[in-house]
Design brief:
alpha/beta, 4-stranded antiparallel β-sheet, 4-stranded parallel β-sheet, 22 helices
């Protein structure tokens, strides 16, 4: 237990038991950072209310029981009954050495789970646009964080690769001849729009497209082969976007709508057998309790349309059952935009009714807002079209390339390009992840590529700056045992370093990546203050120099690891 904030919890609970009895140990100590001490405990006020005693008297009794120890060097009572705690520097030194020797404090969670994460989910035969950015980036970061906690993460890229649009797409592919059509498939948007235009204007084509859907759903070999051609072309394109974005998604992670097609009839049958599916206006519906429309009438979840076809709800229910029963997931995370909140709530409710989401498993909606332009409207191109994701990423690298060349022209072209890519892509990712995902955010190139403030380039530069200290001083990394915390700036940095595993655990629980971003910014800021007030290479003694170099190395490692959990690279030079 290397985080002093966590280590203090049991000490306070023991003090409560000794001072007032075990029955009051359910009062959790509320600990927070303080300007006047390392931490401040707001505990005496609620205890005083329960005991009917003045809070300062309660605080005095707790301070007596806490006493002094290696962890608690000094305590004092402030204000109406707050307890200020000063952590022992010797304890901090040993805790830092322990963290530096191991995995930075990151240990497997107490309860390791199989977690299925549904994210990205682009549509076949359509280009990825800026609307796919948040799901892809947030999902990837959460997968990395949960893996760092020791969980078995199963990525689920729920591609839109099935349904009625494929009738017109396959017919359009046939009209162009399979060879010539392959060239136009590369421009996925143009291919889709041409097929849609033909479907809307040519009744003969539309009729052929409808018949082709029937053939597809019936498993016609020729139709399936053409469908696979479309899917493969799209997957190849998606892979190129993921590679540029640095997203850990591959073919093995694809679990598209087509995967669940053979399961849909069974979903309907089982819901009917359990008395959960009923006919309503010619459709088959489930009515999860607690959901109603504007007219106050129960809201239906349509699982089979009037024409016998299946909808998104049927596929989503099949996916829940598959992820619990086949994948063994006890936690299912859906990284999907906020507008889908009611739909997913109804899916989760219906799945619980059916027994497909038992008490041993849970489903969570990781909702997120939109990416806005400077006009506070949905981000679009100057022509008013939805921004292609690949164009946005290319521009990010291009802008970063100019900045890197201006800042460090002595770097060779190959290294400049690698750094530009890390900075540009990192800036886009961090701008997204550092904002509360529930809220919309404004896409601002100048802000996200700035080397000041809470940005990826600031953190990347902090890491590169630390690594340059070792190059400049031609210094090796000292052993962790060299760390000795003495100065206030060293102590402030130590406290931030030791909080890393707690913050990662919090993100794994709450699924809010901006908390990790905020932590990394605070850590980089603490390092900057340390570096300004505590000479490293010109330290007063060799032992002091070794200690501060070890602190520098540990800080760089935590920044690099933290950025890595967000899917962002940390270059050695910038």
């Amino acid at each position: 237990m290397t985080d002093p904030l966590v280590a203090l919890g049991p000490l306070f609970r023991t003090a409560i038991e000794r001072a007032f009895g075990a029955e009051l140990c359910d009062t959790d100590p509320v600990l927070r950072s303080s300007q006047h001490a390392d931490f401040q405990a707001n505990l005496a006020l609620p205890l005083g209310k329960r005991l009917g005693r003045p809070p300062r008297d309660v605080a005095s009794a707790l301070v007596t029981e806490l006493g002094q120890s290696d962890l608690v060097e000094q305590t004092e009572i402030a204000g109406p009954g707050f307890i200020n705690i000063h952590v022992g520097k010797g304890w901090l030194s040993r805790a830092l050495a322990e963290v530096a020797r191991g995995s930075l404090g990151l240990e497997p969670a107490a309860h390791v789970e199989t977690v299925a994460i549904d994210y990205s989910s682009p549509n076949v035969a359509k280009e990825m646009h800026v609307g796919h950015l948040r799901s892809t980036i947030i999902g990837d970061a959460l997968a990395r964080v949960l893996e760092a906690q020791g969980h078995r993460v199963v990525r689920q890229n729920h591609l839109g690769d099935w349904g009625t649009p494929f009738g017109m797409l396959i017919e359009h592919l046939l009209d162009g001849g399979t060879e010539s059509a392959e060239h136009s498939v590369r421009d996925l948007n143009a291919f889709y729009q041409a097929a849609r235009k033909k479907f809307d204007s040519d009744s003969g084509f539309a009729e052929r497209a409808r018949r082709r859907v029937v053939l597809l759903q019936g498993g016609d070999p020729e139709t399936l082969a053409l469908w696979k051609k479309l899917v493969d072309a799209s997957k190849s394109y998606f892979a190129s976007v993921y590679a540029l974005l640095g997203i850990a998604l591959g073919d093995a992670d694809v679990a598209g709508e087509s995967l669940y097609n053979p399961l849909l009839a069974g979903v309907i049958d089982e819901l009917r057998a359990k008395g959960l599916a009923v006919e309503s206006d010619g459709a088959v519906c489930v009515f999860p309790p607690g959901f109603s429309g504007r007219d106050g009438e129960p809201l239906p979840l349509i699982i089979q349309k009037q024409d016998g076809g299946y909808g998104y709800a049927t596929t989503d229910l099949a996916a829940v059952r598959y992820r619990v029963e086949k994948l063994g997931a006890s936690r299912i995370i859906y990284v999907v935009g906020s507008p889908q909140a009611q739909h997913l709530s109804m899916i989760f409710s219906a799945a619980k009714l059916a027994g497909w989401l038992p008490a041993t498993a849970r489903a969570e909606h990781v909702a997120f807002g939109s990416v806005l332009g400077a006009d506070k409207k949905m981000l679009k191109t100057r022509a008013g079209e939805t921004t292609r994701l690949i164009d946005l990423l290319d521009e990010a690298v291009s802008r970063a390339r100019a900045i890197v060349a201006a800042k460090n022209p002595s770097l060779d072209a190959v290294e400049q390009e690698a750094i530009a890519r890390a900075v540009g892509i990192g800036a886009v990712k961090y701008a997204d992840l550092s904002s509360d995902r529930i809220k919309d955010y404004v896409f601002d190139w100048d802000r996200m590529l700035a080397f000041e403030g809470n940005t990826a380039p600031y953190l990347q530069y902090a890491h590169a700056r630390i690594r340059s200290i070792f190059r400049k001083g031609e210094a090796a990394v000292p052993p962790p045992s060299a760390i000795v915390v003495t100065e206030p700036a060293e102590k402030a940095l130590a406290l931030r370093l030791l909080a890393f595993p707690t913050v990662v655990g919090d993100v794994a629980t709450t699924l809010h990546p901006h908390k990790l971003c905020g932590y990394l910014f605070e850590l980089a800021t603490a390092f900057s203050a340390f570096y300004e007030s505590c000479p490293v290479l010109k330290a007063g003694t060799p032992a002091e120099r070794e200690s501060r170099l070890a602190l520098c190395d540990l800080t760089a490692r935590v920044i690099e690891r933290g950025l890595g959990l967000l899917g962002i690279e940390a270059p050695e030079r910038m």
